[in-house]
Structures are given as C-alpha cells and as structure tokens.
Amino acid sequence: MASQDGKGSIILKFFIVLLVVALIIVIILPGRIWQEEEMVKSTSRGNMATLYESYRYFHILTGFYTDDEREIIATIQNDSALIKRQMVVNHTDRIKNALETYLNSIPVKNLYQISFNLKNIENDLEANKRFFRTIDEINQEAEQVKQEISVLRSGMNFENYHLAAVDLDSLMQLRRDLTDYSLQSAGRLAVAFSEDITDNLPLINFSGINQIWKPMSNRISDLMTAINKTKLKNLTSVSDRVADFQRDADNGFSYFLKSYKSTDLNSTTAASEDLLNVYKEFLTDFIITEQYAQYNLSENDSLLINISETSFYTPDNKMRYIISYDDSSGLRVEDPTLLGELKSKAVNEADRISQLPFMPAFENYQKKIEELKEYYPQIKAKYRRNIDVMIKTKEVEFVIGELPNCAVYDAYLKEKSYIQVVPESDSYSEIKDHIEFALISLGSFKQVYSDNFFGNLDSVHIELIEQLNSFDEMLSKVRRNTFSLEPFVESLNSALAQIKSVSKESILPELQQIDENMKSLYLFASEGEEKTVYGVFKKRIVNYGKIYGAMGDMSWEE
Q1: What angle, rounded to 10 degrees, do the helices at 486-500 and 358-382 form?
Q2: What is the 3-state composition of the chain as percent helix, strand, coil, each rounded to the nearest 5?
Q3: Would you list the DSSP string of 421-446?
Q4: Measured distance CA(66)–CA(474) in Å, rounded
C-alpha cells in the first residue's frame, strides 16, 4: 500500500512540474514572440532607411546607381567627407568624456555645489525683490543678506576661492555649450580652466569661508522664517528653494571640512592632465579639429555609417530588399516579405475578373472612344481655320473627358489597371493599392448590375452622341467634306447596349465570390499571415512597407 502511495506521489509531482513548466512557457514565450516581431519590424525599416540613404548618397558621389553591394559599401565607407564628420563626432565624444570626468571628480563636484548654490541664493533674493519691497523689514534684511553673499562670492577675502569658482563656472558653461566652439578652442579653454581650478583648490581656505557662511546661513534661515509668517508665503516659494540651496551648499562645505584628503586631488589632477592630452591630440589632427564640436552625426550620416552587407537583406527570411530607381518615380526601397504569396493570389483574381462578361463589353466601349479620339483631331487639322469646327472639337473633348468621372466607367478603368499592373509588378505596396481600388470597383459593379442602373454613364453617353450628331450636321454643310461621325455614333450605341445586355443572373454570383476573395486578399495584404512557432504559438509575418520618392517618404508614416 505504501508502495502504491509512493508511486502516486511521484506521478503527481511529475504532473505538477509539467504544469509549472507549461505555465512558464505560456507566460514567457508570447512576450518573446512579440519582442521578435518588434525586432524584425524595427530592423527591417532601419535597413530600408539605410539603403535609401546609401543609394542616394552613392548617386550624389558617382552620378549613377548600381546594384553592386560591395561597391556601394566601399564607396560610402571610403568617402572622405563622411569620414571627417565621423572623426569630428569622435573628437567631440573624447573631450566631452574628459570634461565629465574632471567635473565629476569629488573635489570639483563639491566646490561647484558651494559656488553654484551661493549664486542661486543671491539670484533668488534678487528675483523676489518685487515681493520683498511690500514689507520694509524683510526688504532691508534681504538686501543686506544679498550684499554679504555677494562680498563672499567676490573673493575679496578669499581670492583662491573666487578664482576657482569663476573658472569652474566657465568650464561648466563650456561643457554646456560645447557645440558653440571649435574643437581646438574647446580643448584650449578646457585646459586653461581646469589647470587654474586644480592649482587653486588646495589653496582655498574652506574653514575660513565656512566661518562666515554659517552665521550667514542662520541669518538666511531666519529671513525665510519671517517671510513665511507674512502674506509673502502665498506669493512666492522662495523659502523652499533657498532651503534646498542652503542644504546643498552645507554638504559641499561638510566635504571639505570633514572628508577631504589631499589624495582626493589626485583624480582631479589626472583628469586635468587628460584634458591636456585631449588638446594635444586635437593639435595633431589640426584640419579636423578646426571644425565645431558635434555630438552626433546627422540622421542620414548615422544611417550611412552603419551600412553593411546585412543591410541589404531582411532580418528574418534573408530576402534581398527590392530596390528600383528611375527618373519618373525616383528611388524606391521596399520590403519583399510576402510579395510572392500576395502576387500569386492577386494574379489568380485578376484572371477571374478579366473573364467577367462585362469586361470585354467595357473594353469595346473604351476602344471606340480611343478610335474617336484619334479621328476627330484629323477633322480639326483639316479645318483648323474654321472657328465652328474648332469649338465643336473642344466640346467633344470635354464630354469625353467626363467619362472617367462616371462611377461605373471609372470602376472599369480601375479593374483594367489591376489586371494589367499586378502580373508585372514587383511592388507589394503597388499590388496592395490596386487590390483596394479593384475591391471598391467590384462593389460598384455589384450595385450597377443589381439595380440595372448605370448612373451618369447614360447621361454622359447621351451628351456625347448629341455632340457627335451636331458635329456631323455641321460637317455636312462644309464643301467637299469627306468626314463622317455617324459610324462612331452607331458603334458607341452598340457598345453601350452590349454593356447593358449583361444580365445580373449571369454575373452576380461570380462577382460575389470574387468580392469575398478580394476582401480576404486585402486583409492578407494589410495584416500579413500567422506562422506557427514553438509548436502552439502564432507569430505574425508582415510586409513592412517601403521608402520612396525624392523626399524619402515612408509608407508606414502615411
């Protein structure tokens, strides 16, 4: 019995472990899948941006395009102008890091705490004069405190402190406004300021300064307490700010009076010497360091500098990005993901649409219109001095120009464009756009043939026939006229009758099926497809768009 209980216990434990593992998988794997999807999206779009800028830059440098990956990479990586811009950024990083190291050395950091907060207290008292003036006692006390702080900061009794504090303010400003200076100027000033600060720091009488500061700080606290007892408390928050400034200044004095050791200055001295080394480095690279400091490359340069052979291929399925360039549409870089699947499905539907009974009828009508457009210019050419003929040809042209504005005729043109473009296209976005237009047009045909109502196509057709008859009548009055528009009237009437003769019973079932297929196809084009991963989970495969045109428009931002 005990043996059976033991076996049962082992089995139970096994199932518990199994359930725990399954729970962990359910919690962890979906997040990992999502991260992979986001990585593929950001990498793919980053690659396309890199390729777009690289091809564009290569064309600027050479005057032509190429599909040779190695030539593009080599040309960009060896471009002297780009190399110089990268070197400027590298030098800027060098001096920025050296400045940060110096300013964050413990003695310099605490000196700044003292000088910065004393200045802040003085400035805050000055900024609140308009409030203090409403109460004489507070105004007088604030003015006296402000003057005493000014005397302390001026260095009348503590020259080394004043010199170090002024240089430190200048060094902080240099760090803040580094890009306003050429690299050489920044290096020279950094050396001068840091050396002066480092030389003066050991000579500062912090104990003497603190003896003046302590009673002054108490006096400031009393002033802030008095302010808080008046109506000024509701007008200004000066007391809260000054309390913070006092605390930080006290911490700075506490370091120098209690914690400071002469060895602490070693790190400050080493950082100052490194700034001198930076300046020497700048002098050896004189031409580059004449340039102004620059923290980062431009967005375009950053893309260029990162180009590699992997940039040409999608991160997940390693397909080469589609790249085309011509004078009419400009440069295009597009994700090839799912293009084959989308095109195959779209071509199948294009074949079905082309076989719909009304498509040949509309094509015949369009053919007659095109023949008419080739014919009446001949009349116009022969009778170019006849004002009435010139006016009539303009009227015919205008009516013909109205045909694409007819909903059903426009629907036919979009379906025809879909049939013609999709089999030849290598652009996912182009196929997707044509799917959308064709889908909308199918809806128009369903409505037209369900209601047997062709809308403004009838009215435009009638107007065109009237214009042609009127034109014919005008021509009949011209001596030795050999032109006649009557054949066009007859052929256009016959073509329209052919369009209308298609019964709804013969096409609506097929239209409905194609419509459903096109909706599924558009959903596929928009959202991609799901792929099973880790056995039971789904990962979405998506086409991530394109970058195109002269301005580098990104389809995912439209």
Answers
A1: 160
A2: 75, 5, 20
A3: HGGG---HHHHHHHHHHHHHHHHHHH
A4: 59
Q: How far apart are CA 457 and CA 537, in angstroms?
A: 52
Dihedral angle computed from the Cα positions of residues 396, 397, 399 and 402, in that order, rounded to the nearest 10 degrees:
170
Find out whether 320 and 313 touch, Cβ atoms under 8 Å: yes
How far is it, in rounded angstroms, from Cα 451 to Cα 431?
30
Q: What is the pLDDT of residues 75-105, one digit of tens each?
A: 999 999 999 999 999 999 999 999 999 999 9
Quick one: pLDDT at residue 376?
Answer: 85
Residue with tokens 């297929």: 517
**Non-local CB neighbours of 479 within 8 Å, separated by 6+ positions:** none
Residues 6+ apart with CB under 8 A from 499: 358, 361, 362, 365, 454
Q: Tell me the torsion sign for CA atoms 435, 440, 444, 446.
A: positive
Computed over every residue of the chain, the mean pLDDT equals 92
Q: What is the pLDDT of residues 496-546, one digit of tens each?
A: 999 999 998 889 999 999 999 999 999 999 999 988 877 777 889 999 999
